Amino acid sequence: MWILAILPFALQALGMAFDEGYFHIRRGLPRWERIGHPIDTCSVLLCMGFLLFIPFSSLTLTIYIALAIFSSILVTKDEFVHKEYCPAWENWLHAVLFTLHPITLTCAGFMWPVVQDVEVTPWIARWLNHKEALRLFLQMQFGAMLFFLGYQIIFWNVIWKEKPVLKQ
């Protein structure tokens, strides 16, 4: 049953890969996106790092919820200008990714007390019943996000040669 908790992450990863590997490469990224996308990734890394390195408590849960809300709002910051640069299909994909963003952060939040051996309600314990697999998943997710952040910074700001930004 715990595998359902990682399904939103898999869907988000597929969507991000398509957005990055098809739409971004095809149209190029203007400077504001080359800066803004790593900032978005940092907001998610902050949430995931918080889960991995901060002990669970009612206070830290409140802080995590605030971080997750901030991240969920932050990632939408570019949509006011995306309409000028992105084709309709890319905007639709962004809407799907914006829907998945708080869902993934919520699933991660449910995993947090489980991987730290904090007593949870029975339905959560039945749903997230593989503590070690979930801990490994959160660690791997954090590592993948760190890699993606490095990619975003290096590829788009060092390797990518300026090309015209096109609306397809």
Number of strands: 0
Biggest sheet features: none
Structural class call reads mainly alpha
Oligomer: single chain
- The rough form would be described as elongated
Q: Would you list the SSEs in sequence order as H and E?
A: HHHHHHH
- Beta-strand percent range: under 5%
Count of helix runs: 7
Radius of gyration: 17 Å
Residue runs with pLDDT of under 50 for 5 or more positions:
none
Percent of residues in helical segments? Answer: over 70%
N-to-C span: 41 Å
* Overall pLDDT: 93
Explained architecture:
The protein is mainly α and 168 residues long. The chain is built from seven helices and no strands. Helix 1 runs antiparallel to helix 5 (88-115). The longest helix is centred in the C-terminal third of the chain and has 29 residues, at 131-159. The protein is elongated and about 55 Å long. The termini are far apart. The model has no long low-confidence stretch (mean pLDDT 93).
What is this structure, in a nutshell?
The chain is mainly α and 168 residues long.
Relevant terms:
168 residues; mainly alpha
Write the layout of secondary structure elements.
Blueprint: H1 3-27, H2 31-53, H3 58-74, H4 79-85, H5 88-115, H6 122-127, H7 131-159
Helix pairs in contact: 1-5, 2-3, 2-5, 2-7, 3-5, 5-7
